[in-house]
Amino acid sequence: MLSWLPYAVAGWIFLVGCYGLVTSRHLVHTVVCLNVVQSSTYLLLLAVGWTRGGTAPIFGDIGRSRAVADPLVQAMTLTDIVVGAAVTALLLALTIQIAKRRGTVDPRALRSFEQESEE
Amino acid sequence: MSAPDGLVEQLPVLLVVVPLGAGALVAALGHWAPRILADALAVLVAAVCTVGAGRLVVAVGGGRVVTWLGGWTPASSGSGPGGGQSVGIVLVADRTAAMLVVSAALLVLAGLLFSWRYLEETSATYHALMLVFLAALSGFALAGDLFDAFVWFELMGAAAYALAGMRVEEPRSVFAAVEFGVVNTLGASLTLAGITLLYARTGELALAYVGERLRSQPADALVGFAFVLLVVGALVKAAVVPFHFWTADAEAAAPTPVCAVLSGAMVAMGVYAVARWWRVAFDGVLPHPTAEHLLLVLGAVTALVGAVMCVYQRHIKRLLAYSTISHVGVALLGVGLLDEHGTAAAIAYLVGHACTKGPLFLGSGVLLNRYGTVDEHALFGQGRGRWFTFSVFALGGLGLAGLPVLGLWWGKATLEHALSVAGAPWAVAVVVVAGALTSGSVLRLTARVFLGLGADPRSRSSRDGDGSEEPEEPEEPEEHGPIGPRAAALMVAPAWLLLAAGVGLALVPWVHRAGATAGAVFADRHGYVEAVQHPHRVLAPVVGHEETVWTGTGLGLAAVTLALACLVAAAALWAPRVRALPWGRAGARAARSVVGGLHAVHRADLPEQVAWLLAGAAVLAVVFAL
Amino acid sequence: MRARLTVLLAGAAMLVLAVVGVRALIHLPGAGDVAHPYGARAVAAAFHHATANAVMSVTLDQRGFDTLGEEFVLLAAAVGTVLLLRELTAEREEEAAHTYGPEDVFEAVRLAGYVLLPVTLLVGGYVVVHGHLTPGGGFQGGTVLATGLYLAYLAADYRALDRLRPPGVFDAAEGLGAFAYVAVGVGGLLAGSGFLADWLPWGQLGKPLSAGTVPLLNIAIGIEVGSAFVLVVAKFLEQALTVPEQAAEEG
After folding, report:
1. Mean pLDDT of chain C
2. What is the CB neighbour count within 10 angstroms for residue B585?
3. C88, pLDDT greater than 80
4. Any chain C CB within 8 A of the CB of A67?
5. pLDDT at residue number C137
């Protein structure tokens, strides 16, 4: 039973992040919630890659025959973290500009520019 | 297939690496080197990529060029560290992928030429980002590995968010970029979760290996769920309803050359990904009819919602954005047939769309820079005598209806044929209606802006007194200072380049043969897997079954579409007179009540957009995994 | 009203996703029991190329093409952030009036900053060049290196930081770092073994000079990542230091 716990936690973190995105009242909070959603994928990846009894897949000081966690998912997680950080930087930069131009960072006050039209 | 020579074998890698390297150099030297150097290098690289991808389209023929990167080509003997299966990343270039790279490179080239003399303040950063964007598009099209595709997918995103928001002095632009970034990143997270679940099930990342493993055991709810998560990200990028809300804002607010690439190339990649992933990994694993019905419904809804919203826009770039959504829906109909002809037609349609919508966006950029607005009403009659820009809009508008020998004609005719052969005449009707509404909207704005036809819309709201008209806020032009005639000519020229490429697509018979072969190769799953596992084995080339586009039905449907488009345009231009007809006012009121709800939904804020995304994902999950 | 409907729609969707997700994930083996055919091959391949850190072997050797894309995501984000937070012509005049930097920093913090600066740079460099042997690598080390520069900000002030960070140098270093990664990859192409192939001698597992191109790529990444972080943090710092002062003047 306990071995399903990581999946459940990943799912929970994903839902919490989505709830935050939907109810957010501040764009910085929105961006952080997006980070929370992304963290759920890190956890899911690491949960999938773990091997029972396995250690870190770094063979500097352990024998070659030791059981190790899957290095693939760790590399993928690393990539994912960097990508997440990069996108976060961009979104925060945009948020600063919104604060300057629009005077508000409440996502609910920033509606799509769809206009009522008359044709 | 004759064994490809050395250069062709390396072309897929070079199509990614050359723009990346050039992008890095431009970013590095941008502070010191003069602007002209960045312009010249970027244009040169985009041109080289266009030619290189074109060479690849010719050279792959009915086969594929498979490249295992990092020298990790699997040993055919099964010895070595991989035991016959590689640990590297594979690029698979078939004709479909190569055609998409050509159109992406051509759009980037046109965009860079368009901005040769403008976007001064942003200097070389813009060029670096455009080149990186191009590399990401190529990498995504060519990747034969799920996680690698995800990386290029995210790179596409990162470059695009920055480009979309770069007009920071314009409040709409920055907000649109945030919407774009948040929604697409959420979609990408779902895609990554899907990739993770597939890795947990199959233990592989190469698409061909994943497909083989999935086929080795009966599918269960996990596979369905993984598929849904995987495609949601692609559907977000493809701007499919209900994942499409970011599109109109982003394409209305981004700099126009960026809009052309977003609308012509990036959105197409989303559709392509769904088709590719289904074909290689899930076809024969998940129920075929479910996928077919779902994609057809999604396609039809997207085509119609986009088209209706398009008619009701007066901001020209927004109008074009909704028409992009509509045309993506049409292409998805072709993919939804899940057969060789449908896919071939969808790709032809997407490439033709790039050659039609690109010029329209560039044309709207010319308007924005000359008049400081792209509001159709404010521009009423302003464009009289600007024949070059007029012709871009007129030809683009007619092209959207699938007028023969313009870009979309080939794709639209083959698509209609494929849909009717597959027994979906209702889908043919959707294609015609979508074409008529989007084309009619562009024809309407062309007639208003360049010919001053119809009632002056600026005076109408006061006369009708319905008070619904909100004045458009003036928009920051993308360039400060007047644009001379030579600069203006340089801006229109790339639009003409794209239109000419579209005519080439429609007229050259070789292209149609190549397209049919592309569809056949795309559909050949065994060939794909075989080529990935044994890259040096020479396989028999696949030959596609080519249908002529010059059929009576095709021409007839084009005529019907065009007639309807003219009707739509005329009804809008002379709206007061239409309302004066006996049924006119009632008709207008009925249309307004239908569209009113749609409008209200589309005034979505960011939380609403996220909610729609989750709802769409939930519906897909119920369909595939419950 | 509209906000409540949104939450309801999203809540219903999340409930459905949760139910379907549970029904789907039941079919997975529990964590720890998932089979890793690719992972096993990757470990074997890491030994084959004498790379003790198998994660780094995957990142830079076996799947170096992913990392190429990842590096350019960072480049795009850094360049994009600089672009998005650029000074507009209209804002430039306001700049002159500002003073930068923390004036009332405790002496102890200053001292700690000065002491930690060389240590941080040393650790960062170590993490970069030992990436193929021990946990770490270009991304991690590059971040540590960038942190070092900001210790200078804490220890001195913004002006000192500005002197350490002449305009254009980090922009150039970042682009050149990314270009160096591409160049090492092209080296493989020229050596005839394919783009991003591990074309240098592999050496012996666990030795400082082993794993072929992996240390070179780590250094390229270290330069790129360090510069990118310096650029991004600098831009945000500028905003943090200017925006509140503007508000204070208005208020």
Report:
1. 83
2. 12
3. no
4. no
5. 87
Are C84 and A94 a contacting pair at CB < 8 A? Answer: yes
* Strand-pair partners of B195: none
Locate tokens 């999938």: which residue?
A48
pLDDT in tens, B493-546: 999 999 999 999 888 889 989 999 999 999 999 999 989 988 877 788 888 777
Which subunits sit against A, judged by 3+ Cβ pairs under 8 A?
B, C
Q: DSSP letter string over C48-89? A: HTT-SBHHHIIIIIITHHHHHHHHHHHHHHHHHHHHHTPPPG
Answer yes or no: are the C-beta atoms of B102 and B53 closer than 8 Å.
Answer: yes
- A101 to chain C, any CB pair closer than 8 A? The answer is no
Q: Do B199 and A73 touch (CB under 8 A)?
A: yes
Segment B535-562 mean pLDDT:
84
Which chains are adjacent to chain C, needing at least 3 Cβ pairs under 8 Å?
A, B
Indicate whether C21 belongs to any domain: no
pLDDT at A91 over 50: yes
Any domain includes C18: no
User: Domain ranges in chain A?
Assistant: 5-54+64-118
The CATH code of the domain at A5-54+64-118 is: 1.10.287.3510
Reference C79, options C177, C171, C182; nearest CA is: C171
3-state secondary structure chain A: CHHHHHHHHHHHHHHHHHHHHHHCCCHHHHHHHHHHHHHHHHHHHHHHHCECCCECCECCCCCCCCCECCHHHHHHHHHHHHHHHHHHHHHHHHHHHHHHHHCCCCHHHCECCCCCCCC
pLDDT attached to residue C242: 63
B46 vs A81: CA distance, rounded Å: 31
Cα–Cα distances (Å) from B496 to A107, B107, B134, B405, B492, in that order, read 40, 12, 21, 14, 7
- Tell me how many degrees the CA angle C38-C43-C48 measures, rounded to the nearest 5: 120
Q: Is residue C134 domain-resident?
A: yes
Q: Establish if A62 touches chain C: CB-CB under 8 angstroms.
A: no
pLDDT at B468 over 60: no
Q: Is pLDDT above 80 for B625?
A: yes
| Residues from chain C contacting residue B169 (CB–CB below 8 Å) | 88, 90
User: Domain count of chain C?
Assistant: 1
| Domain with C86 in it | 35-250
Interchain pair A93, C34: CB under 8 A: no
Instruction: Answer whether B597 touches C (CB < 8 Å).
Output: no
CA–CA distances in Å: residue B524 to residues B94, B208, C47: 11, 12, 37
pLDDT in tens, A18-77: 999 999 999 999 999 999 999 999 999 999 998 888 888 888 778 888 888 999 999 999
Instruction: Supply the pLDDT for residue B467.
Output: 35
* Interface ipTM: 0.95
User: Between chains, do A22 and C78 touch, taking CB under 8 Å as contact?
Assistant: no
pLDDT in tens, B23-45: 999 999 887 788 888 889 999 99
Question: Would the pLDDT of B2 be above 50?
Answer: no
Position B616 pLDDT exceeds 90: yes
Q: Apex CA B331: angle with CA B361 and CA B532, to 5°?
A: 110
Please check whether residue B260 is in contact with residue B106, taking contact to mean a CB–CB distance below 8 angstroms: no
Amino acid identity for residue B607 in this structure: P
